[in-house]
Please model this.
Amino acid sequence: MLKTAVVNLGCPKNEVDAEKLVYLLLKDGFQLLAEPDEAEIIIVNTCAFIQPAVEEAINTILYLAGFKNEGCCSILVVAGCLPQRYGITISQEIPEIDLLFGTADFHKIPAAIKKFLISPRPGKTICEISSPDYSELHTVPQQITPPLAYSYLKISEGCNNRCSYCMIPSIKGFQQSVPLETLTMQAQHMVDAGVQEINLVAQDITAYGNDLTEKPKLTDLLKALSRIPSLGRLRLLYAYSHRITTELIDLIAQESKICSYVDIPIQHISDPVLAAMGRHDSSKDICRTLESMKKKIPDLFLRSTVIVGFPGESEEDFSKLLNFVAEGFFDFLGAFSYWPEEGSRAAQFSQQIPTPLKEDRLQAILEVQQSITEKRLRAEIGRTRKVLIEGLSQESDLLLQGRTAFQAPEIDGLTYITEGDAEPGTIVDVEIHDCHEFDLFARIK
Ligand code: SF4
Model:
């Protein structure tokens, strides 16, 4: 049994790939360790869509390469976005790397490691980086890892949009959706393993199925998943506002299993900036969609993402964005200052904004949003909510932790249970009695 450790970096979509890899390794007789220090084989799944992520990946690989010199590690494997973006040059920089795999090549890893063990090629890196065809990887189930309460379901990989600041399409390739039947089986597999909440992820979940022959829509998928008897709830992450249909809005409003919570990255609200970003929607489209959702979906919570300091963003553009955020459409907001990513079209644009001004604009947005989010959470005090219990809190083992339907995993706050007890993986009624910053405190009813 080859002692193996998988180190995962990046977004929930990467987490899904790492869980598929773990499933294949276990099936192939590898022994999985939680920590790399005693592992004979270390596999790191990387993210590389922006320079800070590239640096994090390289630092992690260098740290793990240390286990080849001092520890038990005999084989170092690097997979995912970094090899897909930079190819063999990675191992020329870091010669300790033995095998490299692209974003669609995870299913080849177990066999390639065994082959490498039989005929090692010291100093020569094996490179399996294909132009992304995810059809095989799509069929691989995920090894559901604790806390079992929730999981991510990646409904497609790649992206057909061409936002001018983004390198993801050039790394992950064109959109490739997972067939609806495969997703329904994978969701059933998760629920059988104890998962109560499934978070749908992709680069753009609202484009789901438009690359498949039968053209299933996101609403078709949601209806199929909602029919899984013991599934507690479904959450929509990474929706693109211009593809949010009336049918989708109505389904979210009617289907109790679908959380009244949607993550819709709008990136900006000023039309000249949206156009320069290569976004498909105008400020009018965005407002129309958000107003219709707020009107039709009871108790709706919205999350979004915006970029400030995009090349050419004038004072007027920025104040339009600041005023829009101040209107309080979004309960939760991620804000980032623009990064001129090497290889992206926007990095060549003129009128790049000086960093100090970008930082000032970012702070202004974050301050406005913080008071909106805190006000929205304070309004929860005294309310009864359904909370998915995840288990003992990492903060203190005196408290259980969980999440309401409007708290997405890993990005929003948590709900701490101060009174009452419940099993992990169960959904219970609680009364919210306090909040602190982005977290809530509740007692089980
Ligand atoms: S929708 Fe735009 S930002 Fe998102 S992955 Fe696709 S190209 Fe990148």
